[in-house]
Amino acid sequence: MNAIELRPLVFAELRKIAPELEEGDVDPAKLLRDQVDLDSMDWLNFLIAVHQRFGVEIAEADYAVLDTLDRICELVAARNPAAS
């Protein structure tokens, strides 16, 4: 799967943390934490959920660049092209 195909699947993981979100509430190219009220624990839980769902390793060093929904999807697509 490519990053665009992964977007709704990654967003579904985000909704588990922030169930009040609707897909149109998030611009995938803008800073995610500016759009969604996630504290640091919620953010970490979201990244753990992405790791578990898609089987990708997300190192702490990656956290700084995983600032948009698109970048998270790109990382998943790059590290696990068969992700679903």
Q: Descriptors for this entry?
A:
84 residues, 4 helices, globular
Q: Topology, please?
A:
Elements (H helix, E strand, L loop, with lengths): L2 H15 L14 H4 L4 H15 L14 H11 L5
Structure description:
There is one protein chain. By secondary structure, the protein is an all-alpha fold. It has one domain (about 5-80): Non-ribosomal Peptide Synthetase Peptidyl Carrier Protein, Chain A. It has four helices and no strands. The model has no long low-confidence stretch (mean pLDDT about 95).
At the third CATH level, what is the topology name? Answer: Non-ribosomal Peptide Synthetase Peptidyl Carrier Protein, Chain A
Mean pLDDT: 94
Q: H/E series, N to C?
A: HHHH
Q: What sort of overall outline do the alpha carbons produce when their principal axes are compared?
A: globular
The CATH architecture designation is Orthogonal Bundle
What is the CATH homology-level superfamily?
ACP-like
Spatial extent as radius of gyration: 11 Å
Our estimate of the beta-strand percent is: under 5%
Distance between the termini: 7 Å
SS-based class? mainly alpha
Low-confidence stretches: none
Task: Report the oligomer.
Answer: single chain
Helix amount, in percent? 40-55%
Q: What is the C-level CATH assignment?
A: Mainly Alpha
How many helical elements? 4
Number of domains: 1
The biggest beta sheet reads: none
Please tally the β strands and state the result: 0
